[in-house]
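Before the break, one more example. Copy the sequence into your notebook; we will annotate it together after we see the structure.
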Amino acid sequence: MADPAAQSIHRDPALFYWILFPITIVMILTGVLRHYATILLASTPKKQPLPALREQRSLLRGINLRNNAHVISPTAFASRKEYIVSAYKDGSFLKDPDNRGKPAGNPMSDPAAMEGMMGMMKGNMAMMVPQTLIMSWINAFFAGFVIMKLPFPLTLRFKSMLQSGVATRDLDVRWVSSLSWYFLNLFGLQSVFIFILGNENAANQMAQQMSQMNPSAGAGAAMFQPGQDPDKVFKSEAENLEVVEHDYILRGVEGRLLDGV
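Here is what the structure looks like once it is written out:
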């Protein structure tokens, strides 16, 4: 059975230079500008009082003990576990023990929470405004252009992703439209930004979205969310520590070493 004829489109070669290159260069420059704009808009973190810092680090200490229990001896784990669980239940690490058991205050009245929300809004503005302008620019000047053909075959599932703005049902899925090239650059320039700006850059939109969706990934100020009761968090972590089954990684290491000789 003969193979189907390859689909070809007669295109102006200048489209490659007047559409593909400008979109790529504008996306890279926009990411660099977003990185420096985010740095300029970021507010200087305020120095936290000692009780609040102790409260956060104490919770982090319990989490580290639970995650790394296998690297310390059973006696050391038992003593640390007893001390931390007792302190969690007694509220010894709370920054304000007098408010223990009382309902949490309004997060909108907390200056630290308001400052964090303002920082998030600034980050969203630095991310949304440039993308809105670029999207309008591409729709105004480059809508409906087919600029390149991928050298490898793809399934029909990729058609809607690679041919946005081109309403043709019979077009080969390997052809890429100008609007789809914008989306590919939007999600695929992380390596370029790391090369230009380093690992800790604010140029990548997906990285910013992930950090905003998971703000508790970092330690320190993000350990307690606004409106969250620290006492309940401590008690929950105490329960997690109590059910940990300790398995010392060096138990029977002498026999295993001799068996391997």
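The beta strands are 146-149, 175-177. Residues 111-141 form the longest helix (31 residues). Try to locate both features in your own notes.
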